[in-house]
C-alpha cells in the first residue's frame, strides 16, 4: 500500500516530469538516485531489494502515475519468440483453418506457434495454462473448451502474458476477442429454413457454457419468435461428446411422428450424423428434412445433397487474432480489449435446403 | 581413436566387472579413480576435462564396451515433460486423427505435446528442428514435408533427442518408423478399379521425394503390370500445392478423349477436386469415372456418391509412435529402429466404384 500523505513530501523534480506523458523506469531511477535495474527489481517486488527502497520506488511510481507495461519485463529478459495457441481440437475444419491463419502471421513475424490441444477437457486446459505461466511463450491465442465455466486460470495467465481469444471467447477476461456474428447467424439459418417452408425446426446445441453456442441459439429463438412460432424447448437438442449417444438421440428425434422438418447444426461434425440418420430412416434431404450446418468443411459442395452452410471466416479470424497479439508484443501501451473485432460469417445456400426438388 | 594395444595394459579390476552386464559411469569412475562427474564430462567431450583424462576414460569405456544411453544426459539434467510433434498440417483428417492418438498417449504419460506445423515448407522444418535442438523437448514424433530431400537437420536433432517417424518417414534416419502398407494399398486400390471394369486408370501423385507416395505409385504400377496393362507414365498426374493449377490440370485430364475411367487419389484433399471437375464436365461417378481415395474423412459415407477409400489406421499409428517414444524415454537401452511397425490400412468399398449402377 502506498501512503498517499507521504507523497507530498517527495522531492519531485518537476522540470523532468512536467512535460512528458510516459513515465519511464529511467526517470524514476534518476529521481530516486537508484540504478534502473534496482527500480525495475523493486517494481517486480524482487527479494534483492530492501523493503525501504521498494516503498520509496512504489510511492514515487504511484505519485507520477507510472504504468508499467505488464509484459515488458518478461519480454525484455527472456524473449521466447514463441506464442502458444490453445484450442479444443484440430479434427475440425474451423480450428484447422484458423490455425493456418494464426501460423501465417506468426511466421511472418519470425515466431514459432506452439499448438496445445485441450480435447475439450477443462482440467487439461487448466494444466496447460499453468504450464504456460512459466514463461515458455510470449503470448497466447486461445479458444476455450466447451466445459470452461470458471475463469481463474485464464485471469492468472493473463497477468503474465498478453492473451487474445477467438471464437470461443471468455467474456470475463478484459482483452481482445475475435468473434463472428453468431447470434445473427443463428437467426439467419433459422429464417432461411422458415423461408424454405419448414414448420418444425430443431437446433443441435453443443454446450450451455459456450458463448458461441448460446448466441446461435438466441438467434434461432429470435427468428422463431419474430415468425410467430413457439420457441419449443424440446427443439433444442443437446449434442454431447459421446458419439454413440448422439447418434441414438438423433435417431429418436427423427423417428417421432412430430419430427423436425428442418435442423440447424451448430458445429460441423454433426452433419455426418444427421445425414446418416436420415439415410437410415428413409428421410430424404431436403424433401423431408432440410439441413443447415455451421461448417468450414471442404467437402460441403460434394455431399449428397450438397450442404447449405453458415461459413465462418476461420482463416481471417486466426489472422486477426495473431495480428493483434503481435501488435501487443511490439507496442508498449495497447489496450487489448479495444482491439476486439466481429467478423461476419456467410450463408451459402445449397441443395440441402432446396424447396424446389 | 582408441589405441587397442594399450588396453591390455589397463589395470582392470576384474572382480568388479566380471559379473555385471551393464557398465555404469560409477564403475568407470571407481576404476579410474575419478569423480563420476569427471567421467560423465569426459564422455561428453567437455572442455573442462584434459585431453589425457578424456583419453583414459574413452579407452576404458571402449575396453569394457560401455554404451552410454545417448539421451540420458539431457534427460537427467533437464526433463521438460514435453514432446514435440512435427507434422505438415492439421487440415487433413489423417494428421488430426494421428495427433489425437499421440496426445492420448502423451496425456496418459503426464506429458505435454507441443505441435509444430511445417505447412509443407522444407525451410520451416529445418528452422523448427534447429529450435528443438535447444532441448525444449524430451523427444520428437514427426512426419516430414513433401519437399524434404536432404536429411542433415534430422540427423542432427536425432543425436540430441529420440525421434520416432510416422507415415511420412525418413529412411535415412536409423530410428523407429510407424508406417502403413502403402505399396500394398496402392496395389489394392488399383486392382479394385480393374476388377470394377476400369480400362484406363490414373493416379494423383503428391511428391516424388515422399516414400509413402512412391510406394503407393509402385503398388499401382505393379497392379497394372500384373494385369498386362501398360504402365502409362502419363497416367501419373502431379498434384502440387497450387489449388488453382491442380483443378485446371484435372479439368484438362478429364476433358481428353482418352480420359481416365478410374482414378486413385493418394491423399484425401484431392477428392473434392475430382468430384467437382466430374460434376462440371457432366461425368458421372461411378458410371463414367470410378474413384478410390486414401482418406480418413468422416464425410466419406455421405458424399455424392459415397466414396470408396483406403483408410489408414491414423489414430493407431499416432498411438504407436508415441508409445515407442515413451518407451525410449523410460528405458536406458532401446534400439529404436527395432521398434518399427507396419500397420495395415483397409479398403472400404462404397458407391464411387460400384459397377452395378
Automatic annotation (TrEMBL), chains A, B:
Keyword Metal-binding annotated: no
Keyword Nucleus carried by entry: no
Species this chain originates from: Pedobacter steynii
GO molecular function: DNA-binding transcription factor activity; transcription cis-regulatory region binding
UniProt signal peptide: none
Keywords on record: DNA-binding, Transcription, Transcription regulation
Protein name (record): LacI family transcriptional regulator
Domain HTH lacI-type: 23-77
